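Box 3.1 A note on notation
Throughout this textbook, protein chains are presented in two layers. The first layer is the amino acid sequence; the second is a C-alpha coordinate string describing backbone geometry. Keep the layers aligned when reading.
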Amino acid sequence: MFLLILASPLCVQAEGRGLRELLGLAPVEAPFLRADEAFTVSVQRLSDGGVQAQWTIAPGYYLYRDQIEASLDGRDLVAADQALIPPGELKNDPEFGQTQVFHDELIVRLRPPLEGARLVLGYQGCADGGVCYPPMIQTFDLETLPVIEASSIDLDASNKVRDGWTKWRDDPARLAHLLEIGGWQTNLLIFYGLGLLLAFTPCNLPMIPIISALVAGTPGKRSASRAFMLSLAYVLSVSVAYAAAGMLTALLGANVQASFQNPWVLWGFAGLFALLALAMFGLYEVQMPSFIQSRIDSWVRRVRGGTLAGTMAMGLLSALIIGPCVAAPLAGALIYIGQSGDVWLGGATLFSLSLGMGTPLLLVGTSAGVLVPRAGPWMVYVQHLFGLMLLAVSLWILNRVLAPSYSLILWGVWLIVIGVWLGALNPAKTPARRIGQGLALGIVVYGAFVMAGGVSGGDRFWMPLSHLRGHAGASVQVPFKPIKTVADLREELDGARQRGQAVMLDFYADWCVDCVIMERTTFVDPRVVQALQPVLTLQADVTANDDEDRALMAHLEVIGPPTLLFFDASGEERRNYRVVGLLQADPFLRHLEEAWVESETQ
Protein backbone atom coordinates (compact mmCIF):
# COMPACT_ATOMS: atom_id res chain seq x y z
CA MET A 1 0.00 0.00 0.00
CA PHE A 2 2.85 2.40 0.88
CA LEU A 3 4.47 1.75 -2.52
CA LEU A 4 1.17 2.41 -4.28
CA ILE A 5 0.89 5.75 -2.51
CA LEU A 6 4.39 6.74 -3.56
CA ALA A 7 3.60 5.79 -7.15
CA SER A 8 0.53 8.02 -7.39
CA PRO A 9 0.73 11.03 -9.77
CA LEU A 10 0.11 13.53 -6.99
CA CYS A 11 3.06 12.25 -5.01
CA VAL A 12 5.30 12.45 -8.03
CA GLN A 13 4.48 16.17 -8.33
CA ALA A 14 4.72 16.67 -4.56
CA GLU A 15 8.08 15.01 -3.95
CA GLY A 16 9.48 18.29 -2.60
CA ARG A 17 7.21 18.21 0.44
CA GLY A 18 9.44 15.77 2.30
CA LEU A 19 8.93 12.37 3.89
CA ARG A 20 7.62 13.79 7.17
CA GLU A 21 4.68 15.40 5.39
CA LEU A 22 3.85 12.25 3.43
CA LEU A 23 3.94 10.13 6.60
CA GLY A 24 1.58 12.50 8.37
CA LEU A 25 4.26 13.90 10.69
CA ALA A 26 3.73 17.44 9.35
CA PRO A 27 0.56 19.47 8.74
CA VAL A 28 -1.37 18.04 5.80
CA GLU A 29 -2.51 20.44 3.07
CA ALA A 30 -6.00 20.30 1.63
CA PRO A 31 -6.32 17.72 -1.18
CA PHE A 32 -6.00 18.95 -4.76
CA LEU A 33 -9.16 19.39 -6.79
CA ARG A 34 -10.06 17.17 -9.68
CA ALA A 35 -9.42 18.71 -13.08
CA ASP A 36 -13.13 19.29 -13.74
CA GLU A 37 -13.41 21.04 -10.37
CA ALA A 38 -10.31 23.22 -10.82
CA PHE A 39 -11.28 24.29 -14.34
CA THR A 40 -14.91 24.57 -15.43
CA VAL A 41 -15.76 25.77 -18.91
CA SER A 42 -19.06 27.01 -20.32
CA VAL A 43 -19.94 27.96 -23.88
CA GLN A 44 -22.63 30.31 -25.18
CA ARG A 45 -23.65 31.36 -28.66
CA LEU A 46 -23.83 35.10 -29.29
CA SER A 47 -26.45 37.01 -31.21
CA ASP A 48 -23.84 38.30 -33.67
CA GLY A 49 -22.94 34.76 -34.79
CA GLY A 50 -19.91 34.37 -32.54
CA VAL A 51 -19.31 32.10 -29.56
CA GLN A 52 -18.10 32.90 -26.06
CA ALA A 53 -16.07 30.32 -24.11
CA GLN A 54 -15.60 31.07 -20.43
CA TRP A 55 -13.29 29.23 -18.03
CA THR A 56 -13.81 29.57 -14.29
CA ILE A 57 -10.51 28.81 -12.56
CA ALA A 58 -10.43 27.82 -8.89
CA PRO A 59 -8.26 29.90 -6.52
CA GLY A 60 -4.69 28.60 -6.47
CA TYR A 61 -4.88 27.17 -10.01
CA TYR A 62 -4.01 28.54 -13.43
CA LEU A 63 -4.35 27.78 -17.15
CA TYR A 64 -1.56 27.99 -19.75
CA ARG A 65 -2.28 30.45 -22.53
CA ASP A 66 -0.37 28.50 -25.18
CA GLN A 67 -2.35 25.34 -24.38
CA ILE A 68 -5.73 26.87 -25.26
CA GLU A 69 -7.11 25.18 -28.39
CA ALA A 70 -10.38 25.53 -30.27
CA SER A 71 -11.63 23.69 -33.35
CA LEU A 72 -14.97 23.58 -35.13
CA ASP A 73 -15.71 20.39 -37.09
CA GLY A 74 -11.97 19.77 -37.24
CA ARG A 75 -10.99 23.29 -38.39
CA ASP A 76 -8.42 24.98 -36.13
CA LEU A 77 -9.92 28.32 -35.05
CA VAL A 78 -6.72 29.48 -33.33
CA ALA A 79 -4.67 29.05 -36.50
CA ALA A 80 -7.45 30.78 -38.47
CA ASP A 81 -7.21 33.78 -36.12
CA GLN A 82 -10.85 33.40 -35.09
CA ALA A 83 -10.10 32.58 -31.45
CA LEU A 84 -9.41 35.87 -29.69
CA ILE A 85 -7.30 34.85 -26.69
CA PRO A 86 -6.28 37.82 -24.53
CA PRO A 87 -2.70 38.18 -23.25
CA GLY A 88 -2.05 36.51 -19.90
CA GLU A 89 0.15 37.09 -16.90
CA LEU A 90 3.86 36.26 -17.07
CA LYS A 91 4.78 33.36 -14.76
CA ASN A 92 8.10 31.67 -14.07
CA ASP A 93 6.78 28.12 -14.33
CA PRO A 94 9.06 25.29 -13.07
CA GLU A 95 7.97 23.10 -15.98
CA PHE A 96 7.92 25.51 -18.94
CA GLY A 97 9.98 28.49 -17.73
CA GLN A 98 8.62 31.97 -18.48
CA THR A 99 5.12 31.57 -19.90
CA GLN A 100 1.73 33.28 -19.91
CA VAL A 101 -1.03 31.99 -17.64
CA PHE A 102 -4.55 32.89 -16.52
CA HIS A 103 -5.91 32.97 -12.97
CA ASP A 104 -9.52 33.19 -11.74
CA GLU A 105 -11.26 33.51 -15.10
CA LEU A 106 -10.67 33.51 -18.84
CA ILE A 107 -13.03 34.62 -21.59
CA VAL A 108 -12.26 33.72 -25.21
CA ARG A 109 -14.34 35.07 -28.07
CA LEU A 110 -14.71 32.93 -31.19
CA ARG A 111 -15.61 35.39 -33.90
CA PRO A 112 -17.85 34.67 -36.89
CA PRO A 113 -18.29 33.25 -39.41
CA LEU A 114 -18.49 29.92 -37.57
CA GLU A 115 -19.65 27.13 -39.85
CA GLY A 116 -20.13 23.81 -38.10
CA ALA A 117 -21.75 22.22 -35.07
CA ARG A 118 -19.07 20.30 -33.12
CA LEU A 119 -16.89 22.64 -31.06
CA VAL A 120 -13.85 21.10 -29.34
CA LEU A 121 -11.96 23.06 -26.68
CA GLY A 122 -8.56 21.99 -25.37
CA TYR A 123 -6.74 23.36 -22.34
CA GLN A 124 -4.20 22.48 -19.67
CA GLY A 125 -3.48 23.88 -16.23
CA CYS A 126 -1.68 23.41 -12.95
CA ALA A 127 -2.05 24.15 -9.27
CA ASP A 128 0.22 26.63 -7.53
CA GLY A 129 1.04 23.83 -5.09
CA GLY A 130 2.79 21.79 -7.78
CA VAL A 131 0.22 19.52 -9.44
CA CYS A 132 0.05 19.69 -13.24
CA TYR A 133 -2.96 18.14 -14.92
CA PRO A 134 -2.85 16.37 -18.29
CA PRO A 135 -4.33 18.18 -21.31
CA MET A 136 -8.12 18.27 -21.17
CA ILE A 137 -10.66 18.27 -24.01
CA GLN A 138 -14.35 19.12 -23.95
CA THR A 139 -16.82 18.90 -26.81
CA PHE A 140 -19.93 21.06 -27.30
CA ASP A 141 -22.81 20.88 -29.77
CA LEU A 142 -23.39 24.47 -30.87
CA GLU A 143 -26.86 23.73 -32.19
CA THR A 144 -28.11 22.92 -28.69
CA LEU A 145 -26.59 25.96 -26.97
CA PRO A 146 -28.67 29.01 -25.96
CA VAL A 147 -28.12 32.33 -27.72
CA ILE A 148 -27.34 35.46 -25.67
CA GLU A 149 -26.97 39.11 -26.63
CA ALA A 150 -23.39 40.04 -27.48
CA SER A 151 -23.73 43.22 -25.38
CA SER A 152 -24.36 41.17 -22.22
CA ILE A 153 -20.81 39.81 -22.03
CA ASP A 154 -19.15 40.64 -18.72
CA LEU A 155 -15.82 42.15 -19.67
CA ASP A 156 -14.76 42.99 -16.13
CA ALA A 157 -14.60 39.36 -15.08
CA SER A 158 -11.88 38.72 -17.63
CA ASN A 159 -10.10 42.03 -17.69
CA LYS A 160 -9.78 42.95 -14.02
CA VAL A 161 -7.91 39.78 -13.03
CA ARG A 162 -4.96 40.52 -15.25
CA ASP A 163 -3.05 43.67 -15.90
CA GLY A 164 -5.58 46.33 -14.97
CA TRP A 165 -6.64 49.60 -16.53
CA THR A 166 -3.15 50.75 -17.48
CA LYS A 167 -2.43 47.71 -19.63
CA TRP A 168 -5.72 48.12 -21.51
CA ARG A 169 -5.01 51.82 -21.99
CA ASP A 170 -1.52 51.25 -23.44
CA ASP A 171 -2.00 48.12 -25.57
CA PRO A 172 -3.86 48.57 -28.89
CA ALA A 173 -4.14 44.81 -29.44
CA ARG A 174 -5.95 44.39 -26.12
CA LEU A 175 -8.19 47.34 -26.87
CA ALA A 176 -9.09 45.84 -30.24
CA HIS A 177 -9.88 42.58 -28.42
CA LEU A 178 -12.08 44.53 -25.99
CA LEU A 179 -14.10 45.90 -28.92
CA GLU A 180 -14.45 42.39 -30.33
CA ILE A 181 -15.96 40.85 -27.20
CA GLY A 182 -17.70 43.81 -25.56
CA GLY A 183 -21.09 45.39 -25.91
CA TRP A 184 -21.30 48.78 -27.56
CA GLN A 185 -22.46 50.52 -24.38
CA THR A 186 -19.46 49.20 -22.46
CA ASN A 187 -17.06 50.11 -25.25
CA LEU A 188 -18.30 53.69 -25.49
CA LEU A 189 -17.96 54.23 -21.75
CA ILE A 190 -14.48 52.71 -21.59
CA PHE A 191 -13.18 54.72 -24.54
CA TYR A 192 -14.68 57.90 -23.10
CA GLY A 193 -12.62 57.24 -19.98
CA LEU A 194 -9.53 56.60 -22.09
CA GLY A 195 -10.13 59.92 -23.83
CA LEU A 196 -10.10 61.68 -20.48
CA LEU A 197 -6.70 60.11 -19.76
CA LEU A 198 -5.38 61.34 -23.12
CA ALA A 199 -6.76 64.86 -22.78
CA PHE A 200 -3.59 66.36 -21.33
CA THR A 201 -1.02 64.58 -23.49
CA PRO A 202 1.41 66.82 -25.42
CA CYS A 203 -0.42 66.29 -28.72
CA ASN A 204 -3.64 67.78 -27.36
CA LEU A 205 -2.41 70.57 -25.09
CA PRO A 206 -2.29 73.21 -27.90
CA MET A 207 -6.08 73.01 -28.16
CA ILE A 208 -6.43 74.61 -24.71
CA PRO A 209 -5.19 78.08 -25.74
CA ILE A 210 -7.19 77.81 -28.97
CA ILE A 211 -10.53 77.23 -27.26
CA SER A 212 -9.67 79.80 -24.56
CA ALA A 213 -8.90 82.45 -27.17
CA LEU A 214 -11.98 81.62 -29.23
CA VAL A 215 -14.30 82.00 -26.25
CA ALA A 216 -12.70 84.50 -23.87
CA GLY A 217 -10.89 86.51 -26.52
CA THR A 218 -14.06 87.37 -28.41
CA PRO A 219 -15.14 90.98 -28.01
CA GLY A 220 -18.68 91.75 -27.03
CA LYS A 221 -21.12 90.37 -24.53
CA ARG A 222 -20.34 87.01 -22.97
CA SER A 223 -22.31 84.72 -20.72
CA ALA A 224 -21.93 81.26 -19.26
CA SER A 225 -24.48 79.81 -21.69
CA ARG A 226 -22.81 81.38 -24.73
CA ALA A 227 -19.36 80.27 -23.60
CA PHE A 228 -20.71 76.75 -23.10
CA MET A 229 -22.34 76.66 -26.55
CA LEU A 230 -19.15 77.88 -28.28
CA SER A 231 -17.05 75.37 -26.36
CA LEU A 232 -19.50 72.58 -27.14
CA ALA A 233 -19.47 73.48 -30.83
CA TYR A 234 -15.67 73.31 -30.86
CA VAL A 235 -15.52 69.97 -29.00
CA LEU A 236 -18.24 68.34 -31.13
CA SER A 237 -16.60 69.44 -34.38
CA VAL A 238 -13.25 68.10 -33.16
CA SER A 239 -14.94 64.80 -32.24
CA VAL A 240 -16.70 64.48 -35.60
CA ALA A 241 -13.50 65.20 -37.51
CA TYR A 242 -11.52 62.81 -35.31
CA ALA A 243 -14.01 59.98 -35.83
CA ALA A 244 -14.29 60.59 -39.58
CA ALA A 245 -10.51 60.73 -40.01
CA GLY A 246 -10.13 57.52 -38.04
CA MET A 247 -12.78 55.69 -40.07
CA LEU A 248 -11.15 56.78 -43.33
CA THR A 249 -7.74 55.77 -42.00
CA ALA A 250 -8.96 52.27 -41.21
CA LEU A 251 -10.79 51.84 -44.52
CA LEU A 252 -8.18 53.41 -46.81
CA GLY A 253 -5.09 52.20 -44.97
CA ALA A 254 -3.61 55.71 -44.83
CA ASN A 255 -3.40 58.09 -41.90
CA VAL A 256 -5.65 60.98 -42.91
CA GLN A 257 -4.26 63.30 -40.24
CA ALA A 258 -0.70 62.55 -41.36
CA SER A 259 -1.71 63.60 -44.87
CA PHE A 260 -2.32 67.10 -43.52
CA GLN A 261 1.28 67.39 -42.31
CA ASN A 262 2.27 68.80 -45.69
CA PRO A 263 4.61 71.80 -45.23
CA TRP A 264 2.30 74.08 -47.23
CA VAL A 265 -0.67 73.12 -45.08
CA LEU A 266 1.31 73.63 -41.89
CA TRP A 267 2.63 77.01 -43.04
CA GLY A 268 -0.91 78.07 -43.90
CA PHE A 269 -2.33 76.96 -40.58
CA ALA A 270 0.54 78.59 -38.65
CA GLY A 271 -0.14 81.79 -40.60
CA LEU A 272 -3.82 81.58 -39.70
CA PHE A 273 -3.02 81.50 -35.99
CA ALA A 274 -0.51 84.32 -36.42
CA LEU A 275 -3.22 86.46 -38.05
CA LEU A 276 -5.64 85.64 -35.25
CA ALA A 277 -2.95 86.58 -32.72
CA LEU A 278 -2.31 89.91 -34.45
CA ALA A 279 -6.04 90.56 -34.37
CA MET A 280 -5.93 90.11 -30.60
CA PHE A 281 -3.32 92.88 -30.48
CA GLY A 282 -5.63 95.20 -32.43
CA LEU A 283 -3.48 95.25 -35.57
CA TYR A 284 -6.50 95.51 -37.87
CA GLU A 285 -7.70 98.64 -36.13
CA VAL A 286 -4.92 100.68 -37.80
CA GLN A 287 -5.86 102.72 -40.83
CA MET A 288 -5.74 100.95 -44.16
CA PRO A 289 -7.92 100.98 -47.27
CA SER A 290 -11.47 100.46 -46.08
CA PHE A 291 -12.31 97.59 -48.45
CA ILE A 292 -9.23 95.64 -47.26
CA GLN A 293 -9.84 96.45 -43.61
CA SER A 294 -13.51 95.43 -43.76
CA ARG A 295 -12.80 92.11 -45.46
CA ILE A 296 -9.96 91.15 -43.13
CA ASP A 297 -11.90 92.23 -40.06
CA SER A 298 -15.00 90.29 -41.14
CA TRP A 299 -13.00 87.14 -41.91
CA VAL A 300 -10.99 87.27 -38.68
CA ARG A 301 -14.10 87.81 -36.59
CA ARG A 302 -15.80 84.79 -38.15
CA VAL A 303 -12.85 82.49 -37.62
CA ARG A 304 -11.52 83.72 -34.33
CA GLY A 305 -14.74 83.08 -32.47
CA GLY A 306 -18.09 84.52 -31.57
CA THR A 307 -20.04 82.45 -34.11
CA LEU A 308 -20.87 78.77 -33.98
CA ALA A 309 -19.84 78.31 -37.61
CA GLY A 310 -16.43 79.90 -37.09
CA THR A 311 -15.80 77.92 -33.92
CA MET A 312 -16.81 74.64 -35.58
CA ALA A 313 -14.55 75.38 -38.55
CA MET A 314 -11.65 75.93 -36.17
CA GLY A 315 -12.49 72.66 -34.41
CA LEU A 316 -12.43 70.70 -37.67
CA LEU A 317 -9.05 72.16 -38.64
CA SER A 318 -7.63 71.63 -35.15
CA ALA A 319 -8.54 67.94 -35.17
CA LEU A 320 -6.84 67.34 -38.51
CA ILE A 321 -3.69 69.38 -38.00
CA ILE A 322 -3.00 69.94 -34.31
CA GLY A 323 -2.94 66.33 -33.09
CA PRO A 324 -1.59 63.83 -35.64
CA CYS A 325 0.15 61.56 -33.09
CA VAL A 326 -1.29 58.07 -32.67
CA ALA A 327 -2.16 56.80 -29.18
CA ALA A 328 -2.96 53.23 -28.17
CA PRO A 329 -6.76 53.70 -27.82
CA LEU A 330 -6.95 55.23 -31.29
CA ALA A 331 -4.81 52.43 -32.74
CA GLY A 332 -6.95 49.79 -31.03
CA ALA A 333 -10.15 51.19 -32.53
CA LEU A 334 -8.55 51.42 -35.98
CA ILE A 335 -7.30 47.82 -35.75
CA TYR A 336 -10.82 46.71 -34.89
CA ILE A 337 -12.37 48.61 -37.81
CA GLY A 338 -9.79 47.23 -40.23
CA GLN A 339 -10.24 43.63 -39.08
CA SER A 340 -14.01 43.53 -38.60
CA GLY A 341 -15.24 46.05 -41.14
CA ASP A 342 -17.66 47.40 -38.51
CA VAL A 343 -17.16 51.03 -39.44
CA TRP A 344 -20.07 52.40 -37.42
CA LEU A 345 -19.11 50.85 -34.08
CA GLY A 346 -15.51 51.87 -34.70
CA GLY A 347 -16.56 55.40 -35.60
CA ALA A 348 -18.82 55.68 -32.55
CA THR A 349 -15.94 54.48 -30.38
CA LEU A 350 -13.59 57.09 -31.86
CA PHE A 351 -16.25 59.77 -31.32
CA SER A 352 -16.59 58.71 -27.69
CA LEU A 353 -12.80 58.74 -27.29
CA SER A 354 -12.64 62.25 -28.69
CA LEU A 355 -15.49 63.43 -26.46
CA GLY A 356 -13.47 62.25 -23.49
CA MET A 357 -10.47 64.18 -24.77
CA GLY A 358 -12.68 67.23 -25.31
CA THR A 359 -14.39 67.27 -21.92
CA PRO A 360 -11.58 69.28 -20.25
CA LEU A 361 -11.68 71.66 -23.23
CA LEU A 362 -15.39 72.15 -22.63
CA LEU A 363 -14.70 73.01 -19.00
CA VAL A 364 -11.82 75.33 -19.90
CA GLY A 365 -13.82 77.18 -22.54
CA THR A 366 -16.88 77.61 -20.35
CA SER A 367 -14.76 78.78 -17.41
CA ALA A 368 -12.83 81.20 -19.60
CA GLY A 369 -16.05 82.79 -20.79
CA VAL A 370 -17.26 83.29 -17.22
CA LEU A 371 -14.10 84.17 -15.27
CA VAL A 372 -12.43 86.61 -17.67
CA PRO A 373 -13.43 90.27 -17.01
CA ARG A 374 -16.03 91.52 -19.46
CA ALA A 375 -15.13 95.18 -19.70
CA GLY A 376 -12.60 97.73 -18.60
CA PRO A 377 -8.84 98.11 -19.02
CA TRP A 378 -8.20 94.51 -17.98
CA MET A 379 -9.82 93.35 -21.21
CA VAL A 380 -6.95 94.83 -23.20
CA TYR A 381 -4.46 92.71 -21.27
CA VAL A 382 -6.67 89.64 -21.68
CA GLN A 383 -6.80 90.16 -25.44
CA HIS A 384 -3.01 90.50 -25.56
CA LEU A 385 -2.53 87.39 -23.39
CA PHE A 386 -4.60 85.26 -25.73
CA GLY A 387 -2.78 86.78 -28.67
CA LEU A 388 0.52 85.56 -27.19
CA MET A 389 -1.03 82.13 -26.61
CA LEU A 390 -2.10 81.91 -30.24
CA LEU A 391 1.39 82.94 -31.34
CA ALA A 392 2.71 80.02 -29.27
CA VAL A 393 0.36 77.66 -31.12
CA SER A 394 1.62 79.06 -34.43
CA LEU A 395 5.24 78.45 -33.37
CA TRP A 396 4.32 74.96 -32.15
CA ILE A 397 3.03 74.13 -35.63
CA LEU A 398 6.14 75.60 -37.28
CA ASN A 399 8.30 73.25 -35.20
CA ARG A 400 7.27 70.53 -37.65
CA VAL A 401 8.62 72.29 -40.74
CA LEU A 402 11.52 74.40 -39.47
CA ALA A 403 14.99 73.22 -38.51
CA PRO A 404 15.22 72.83 -34.71
CA SER A 405 17.71 75.68 -34.36
CA TYR A 406 15.43 78.08 -36.28
CA SER A 407 12.49 77.06 -34.08
CA LEU A 408 14.61 77.74 -31.01
CA ILE A 409 15.37 81.26 -32.24
CA LEU A 410 11.65 81.98 -32.69
CA TRP A 411 10.85 80.62 -29.23
CA GLY A 412 13.54 82.90 -27.81
CA VAL A 413 11.96 85.90 -29.49
CA TRP A 414 8.56 84.84 -28.14
CA LEU A 415 9.92 84.63 -24.58
CA ILE A 416 11.51 88.08 -24.88
CA VAL A 417 8.19 89.51 -26.09
CA ILE A 418 6.44 87.84 -23.13
CA GLY A 419 8.93 89.36 -20.71
CA VAL A 420 8.62 92.85 -22.18
CA TRP A 421 4.82 92.57 -22.17
CA LEU A 422 4.96 91.61 -18.47
CA GLY A 423 6.85 94.82 -17.72
CA ALA A 424 10.53 93.92 -17.77
CA LEU A 425 11.44 97.41 -19.06
CA ASN A 426 8.80 99.39 -17.17
CA PRO A 427 9.74 101.40 -14.06
CA ALA A 428 8.72 99.64 -10.84
CA LYS A 429 7.97 101.77 -7.77
CA THR A 430 6.35 99.31 -5.36
CA PRO A 431 7.82 96.07 -3.92
CA ALA A 432 5.15 93.97 -5.63
CA ARG A 433 5.91 95.54 -9.00
CA ARG A 434 9.64 95.01 -8.45
CA ILE A 435 9.04 91.30 -7.86
CA GLY A 436 6.97 91.15 -11.04
CA GLN A 437 9.62 93.04 -12.94
CA GLY A 438 12.27 90.61 -11.67
CA LEU A 439 10.28 87.66 -12.98
CA ALA A 440 9.76 89.41 -16.31
CA LEU A 441 13.49 90.16 -16.58
CA GLY A 442 14.21 86.50 -15.86
CA ILE A 443 11.98 85.50 -18.79
CA VAL A 444 13.77 87.99 -21.05
CA VAL A 445 17.20 86.68 -20.01
CA TYR A 446 16.16 83.07 -20.56
CA GLY A 447 14.70 84.05 -23.93
CA ALA A 448 18.08 85.51 -24.84
CA PHE A 449 19.76 82.23 -23.86
CA VAL A 450 17.25 80.32 -25.99
CA MET A 451 17.95 82.59 -28.96
CA ALA A 452 21.70 82.16 -28.45
CA GLY A 453 21.22 78.41 -28.34
CA GLY A 454 19.36 78.47 -31.64
CA VAL A 455 21.92 80.73 -33.31
CA SER A 456 24.73 78.39 -32.22
CA GLY A 457 22.95 75.28 -33.54
CA GLY A 458 21.16 74.04 -30.43
CA ASP A 459 17.79 72.32 -30.45
CA ARG A 460 16.66 72.02 -26.80
CA PHE A 461 14.30 74.55 -25.26
CA TRP A 462 15.04 73.65 -21.64
CA MET A 463 18.82 73.26 -22.10
CA PRO A 464 19.50 75.64 -24.99
CA LEU A 465 23.29 75.81 -24.50
CA SER A 466 23.93 72.16 -23.58
CA HIS A 467 25.44 71.44 -27.00
CA LEU A 468 28.29 73.89 -26.28
CA ARG A 469 29.74 71.65 -23.58
CA GLY A 470 31.51 69.65 -26.25
CA HIS A 471 31.92 65.94 -26.80
CA ALA A 472 32.84 65.18 -23.19
CA GLY A 473 29.51 66.42 -21.98
CA ALA A 474 27.44 65.01 -24.81
CA SER A 475 24.71 62.60 -23.75
CA VAL A 476 24.54 59.08 -25.05
CA GLN A 477 21.56 58.02 -27.12
CA VAL A 478 20.20 54.96 -28.85
CA PRO A 479 22.07 54.54 -32.18
CA PHE A 480 19.19 54.15 -34.62
CA LYS A 481 19.93 52.89 -38.13
CA PRO A 482 17.61 54.54 -40.68
CA ILE A 483 15.48 52.52 -43.09
CA LYS A 484 13.05 53.75 -45.72
CA THR A 485 11.47 50.91 -47.67
CA VAL A 486 10.08 47.43 -47.20
CA ALA A 487 13.17 46.09 -48.97
CA ASP A 488 15.40 47.89 -46.44
CA LEU A 489 13.50 46.27 -43.59
CA ARG A 490 13.75 42.77 -45.09
CA GLU A 491 17.48 43.19 -45.65
CA GLU A 492 18.06 44.27 -42.05
CA LEU A 493 15.87 41.48 -40.64
CA ASP A 494 17.71 38.88 -42.73
CA GLY A 495 21.06 40.13 -41.46
CA ALA A 496 19.86 40.15 -37.85
CA ARG A 497 18.46 36.63 -38.22
CA GLN A 498 21.82 35.34 -39.42
CA ARG A 499 23.51 36.96 -36.41
CA GLY A 500 20.83 35.74 -34.00
CA GLN A 501 20.05 39.34 -33.06
CA ALA A 502 16.75 40.83 -31.92
CA VAL A 503 15.44 43.97 -33.66
CA MET A 504 13.49 47.04 -32.56
CA LEU A 505 11.91 49.30 -35.21
CA ASP A 506 10.88 52.85 -34.31
CA PHE A 507 8.41 54.81 -36.48
CA TYR A 508 9.24 58.50 -36.08
CA ALA A 509 8.17 61.84 -37.60
CA ASP A 510 9.28 65.41 -36.96
CA TRP A 511 5.65 66.54 -36.75
CA CYS A 512 4.89 63.94 -34.06
CA VAL A 513 5.25 65.60 -30.65
CA ASP A 514 5.39 62.31 -28.74
CA CYS A 515 8.13 61.06 -31.08
CA VAL A 516 10.31 64.07 -30.32
CA ILE A 517 9.71 63.69 -26.59
CA MET A 518 10.74 60.02 -26.68
CA GLU A 519 13.82 60.89 -28.74
CA ARG A 520 14.93 63.48 -26.17
CA THR A 521 13.98 61.59 -22.98
CA THR A 522 13.45 57.84 -23.32
CA PHE A 523 16.14 57.14 -25.92
CA VAL A 524 18.84 59.17 -24.15
CA ASP A 525 18.29 57.47 -20.79
CA PRO A 526 21.53 55.53 -20.02
CA ARG A 527 19.52 52.52 -18.80
CA VAL A 528 17.60 52.34 -22.06
CA VAL A 529 20.78 52.75 -24.11
CA GLN A 530 22.41 49.93 -22.11
CA ALA A 531 19.38 47.63 -22.43
CA LEU A 532 19.26 48.10 -26.22
CA GLN A 533 22.98 47.50 -26.85
CA PRO A 534 22.49 43.85 -27.96
CA VAL A 535 19.55 44.88 -30.16
CA LEU A 536 19.59 46.14 -33.74
CA THR A 537 17.69 49.43 -33.46
CA LEU A 538 16.09 50.62 -36.70
CA GLN A 539 14.19 53.84 -37.32
CA ALA A 540 11.73 54.66 -40.10
CA ASP A 541 11.41 58.44 -40.41
CA VAL A 542 7.97 58.99 -41.97
CA THR A 543 8.03 62.78 -41.75
CA ALA A 544 7.61 63.11 -45.53
CA ASN A 545 4.64 60.68 -45.53
CA ASP A 546 5.49 59.81 -49.14
CA ASP A 547 4.62 56.65 -51.08
CA GLU A 548 7.52 54.66 -49.61
CA ASP A 549 6.59 55.69 -46.07
CA ARG A 550 2.96 54.71 -46.58
CA ALA A 551 3.96 51.41 -48.19
CA LEU A 552 6.16 50.50 -45.22
CA MET A 553 3.44 51.38 -42.72
CA ALA A 554 0.85 49.44 -44.72
CA HIS A 555 3.17 46.42 -44.92
CA LEU A 556 3.50 46.35 -41.13
CA GLU A 557 -0.07 47.53 -40.44
CA VAL A 558 1.19 50.59 -38.58
CA ILE A 559 -1.35 53.39 -38.12
CA GLY A 560 1.19 56.14 -37.54
CA PRO A 561 3.97 57.35 -35.28
CA PRO A 562 5.06 56.90 -32.59
CA THR A 563 5.02 53.10 -32.92
CA LEU A 564 7.66 50.62 -31.77
CA LEU A 565 7.87 47.08 -33.17
CA PHE A 566 9.91 44.24 -31.66
CA PHE A 567 11.29 41.29 -33.64
CA ASP A 568 12.90 38.22 -32.08
CA ALA A 569 16.14 36.61 -33.28
CA SER A 570 14.22 34.57 -35.88
CA GLY A 571 12.85 37.73 -37.50
CA GLU A 572 9.28 37.23 -36.24
CA GLU A 573 7.50 40.23 -34.80
CA ARG A 574 6.28 39.95 -31.21
CA ARG A 575 2.94 41.49 -32.18
CA ASN A 576 1.54 41.52 -28.65
CA TYR A 577 4.36 43.82 -27.57
CA ARG A 578 3.90 46.69 -29.99
CA VAL A 579 4.10 50.11 -28.38
CA VAL A 580 1.84 52.87 -29.69
CA GLY A 581 2.18 56.33 -28.20
CA LEU A 582 4.51 57.96 -25.71
CA LEU A 583 6.41 55.67 -23.33
CA GLN A 584 8.85 57.05 -20.76
CA ALA A 585 12.05 55.27 -19.72
CA ASP A 586 10.81 53.26 -16.72
CA PRO A 587 7.72 51.70 -18.37
CA PHE A 588 9.75 51.23 -21.57
CA LEU A 589 12.36 49.17 -19.69
CA ARG A 590 9.66 47.00 -18.09
CA HIS A 591 8.01 46.51 -21.47
CA LEU A 592 11.34 45.66 -23.08
CA GLU A 593 12.08 43.00 -20.46
CA GLU A 594 8.67 41.39 -20.92
CA ALA A 595 9.01 41.38 -24.71
CA TRP A 596 12.41 39.67 -24.70
CA VAL A 597 11.50 37.21 -21.95
CA GLU A 598 8.35 36.19 -23.80
CA SER A 599 10.22 35.78 -27.08
CA GLU A 600 12.81 33.52 -25.44
CA THR A 601 10.07 31.13 -24.32
CA GLN A 602 8.58 30.70 -27.80
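The chain has four domains: 1-31, 35-162, 191-374, 481-600. The longest helix spans residues 224-252.
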